[in-house]
Write a structure and sequence with these properties.
The structure is a homodimer. Chain A is built from 13 helices and 13 strands. By secondary structure, chain A is of the alpha/beta class. Chain A has a domain at 9-192 and 227-254 and 295-310: Rossmann fold (3-Layer(aba) Sandwich), CATH 3.40.50. The relative contact order of chain A is 0.15. The A-B interface holds A 98, 101-102, 105-106, 109-110, 113, 148, 150-156, 158-160, 162-163, 166-167, 169-170, 173-174, 288-289 and B 98, 101-102, 105-106, 109-110, 113, 148, 150-156, 158-160, 162-163, 166-167, 169-170, 173-174, 288-289.
Chain lengths: 336, 336
């Protein structure tokens, strides 16, 4: 596969695409890219408070928004005739899963079974690209982490997200549906939820920096490999375009791993040196579910698709701050 | 640890023990053993049709039966003061999970979260021994299968059972509860469900042999390592007695692996040569979820507890047939 491959507009023109969680951070990013590529896009989103879904995220994308909850909506009419489904809807807050594991399971597993059943009826041949997570590997037993790393969920969210992914893989193995699962590392960029740290810790950092307030760095020595929105979107598009991906799970990383203390410094630098942070001990309830350092081994996905990340961290942070600077207030309010 | 260790009556005398799924095959076997060891035993069972739970299974055990469904009952009063919980309640039919994955998930995962929450309230220090399964390893990538084997569920049941086990392991890691999970191979013996093959294929074989009818052998070359009830019960008791087991998952095997064709011949021999079987191709819907050959590597559990299986297959089959021969009719009716 050619290295540094781009999504192919000829593949996407006229394709009927459904994006679950389509008004959220990654989902809306996909909708914008798909619109630009000429696809006909329907976003499904429940616009649940605190989950990152916002109507405004889809403005200018050309996507149709269907407000529906995968846990209870009649999904078949929305899915009818879909060629490709990007399955981005999820409860992804780790702390949230510990506080309410029932909703976490209902969204990440039970609702996935509903979607699987509806797709059998409405779009039996549709390709599914599922948004999965590195979370269920737990504390890395070796770095970088490849797909054969043991699954040792550190929290209830890791359990439910693994179950949801594996339901899709069973659907592939038993019923032959083309399914690809991408196990994401921390993703950031425009339309990230920044009201709080529910989507990722960088969200609240960005908010604090733009508000001129100090942000909190918990620990600081743990390593992470952040992926910029545009690179993640390209990965999902290429996964759908590449028949050889069907039936496989892939790790997806980003730029080179770095310590969070260095990331904090880079964020301040990307804000023109304006901003500061204070280093804190982990709160005990977060320490209990923290995974320590992580870095993805995504060589399998690169080899299968020709994908490579293009946006270095300093540039991605600068672009993200530039996006939010004039839009801070609306992003601090919940979905509407 | 001493090899060939026995459960210690001094440990069990007066212990307050709760057995979920306590009127089922393995659950009732535990209740009988616990009663003999002097424990005070409460069995919780929903007596759901087709699941193997029968009031009559507990006759003579001394256990109190609480008819309750883990998906909806108020569990805290039943669990109050428990020292040890044997968590045997599950939906275990592979084909059943494909036909109704929602019930399968509700019983094997959502209900486990309810049990976890109720135990925090009612018995914060209770030891939990969880009945897990080799099923989620899927088709063995190497034999025998140890606990580091990848998790590749072949069916929806494998997904839900892994989720349920991992919820318990997270509860251990985050909240410190002593939890042991035993990943069982095919188990057989008195009180196995024999009306059909829902609990295991050997159930319907036993029924047919005792009815004087031929039974069906699907395939025949695939290998299995069957575990006799008494050995499985000893394993659960020793797991609870052994503090070093807390926080660990263990495979549990049985007698030496053999091809199912050989097992079929042994069953007929154990019935005094009375009985016959016909070899059939797998039905397509079963072929799609079949795991092929399996044999457990249970050296970790043997090393941790001193457990070893004692009942060879010919003896176990003879004992099982002797149990069912005078009781065939009641075991063909559903729970009551």
């Amino acid at each position: 596969m050619t290295a540094d491959r781009h999504p192919d507009p000829a593949f996407w023109a006229g394709k009927r695409v459904v994006v679950t969680g389509g008004a959220g951070f990654l989902g809306s990013g996909l909708c914008h890219a798909l619109g630009a590529l000429g696809a006909r896009v329907t976003a499904i989103d429940a616009l649940l408070p605190g989950m990152g879904g916002r109507r405004a995220n889809l403005e200018g994308s050309g996507a149709e928004l269907v407000v529906a909850d995968l846990r209870e909506a009649d999904l078949a009419p929305v899915l009818a005739g879909a060629d490709i489904v990007f399955n981005m809807a999820a409860q992804i807050s780790h702390a949230g899963s510990m506080a309410d594991p029932f909703s976490d399971l209902a969204i990440n597993a039970t609702a996935q079974l509903r979607l699987i059943a509806a797709l059998r009826e409405a779009a039996p041949g549709a390709v599914v690209v599922h948004a999965s997570t590195r979370q269920f590997y737990g504390r890395a037993q070796r770095l970088p982490v490849d797909e054969a790393h043991p699954v040792v969920p550190p929290d209830f969210n890791g359990v439910s997200k693994f179950a949801g992914e594996q339901y899709w893989m069973v659907e592939h193995r038993v019923h032959g549906r083309p399914v690809v699962s991408l196990r994401l590392t921390n993703c950031y960029g425009p339309r990230l939820r920044i009201a709080d740290a529910r989507q990722m810790f960088l969200g609240i950092w960005i908010r604090r920096v733009l508000e001129g307030e100090p942000f909190e760095l918990w620990g600081g020595e743990q390593m992470r490999d952040l992926a910029y929105l545009d690179d993640v979107v390209s990965a999902f598009l290429l996964a759908a375009e590449t028949p050889g991906c069907a039936g496989r799970v892939f790790n997806l990383g980003g730029d080179a791993p770095l310590a969070l203390r260095r990331l904090a410094e880079m964020l301040v630098a990307a804000n023109g040196g304006q901003g500061r942070f204070v280093v804190r001990e982990f709160p005990p309830e977060r320490r209990a579910i923290d995974i320590g350092s992580y870095a993805a081994d995504d060589t399998a996905f690169r080899a299968a698709t020709g994908w490579a990340p293009r946006v270095p961290l300093p540039e991605g942070l600068a672009r993200t701050l530039a996006f939010f600077r004039p839009r801070l207030t609306p992003f601090l309010q919940d979905a509407a």
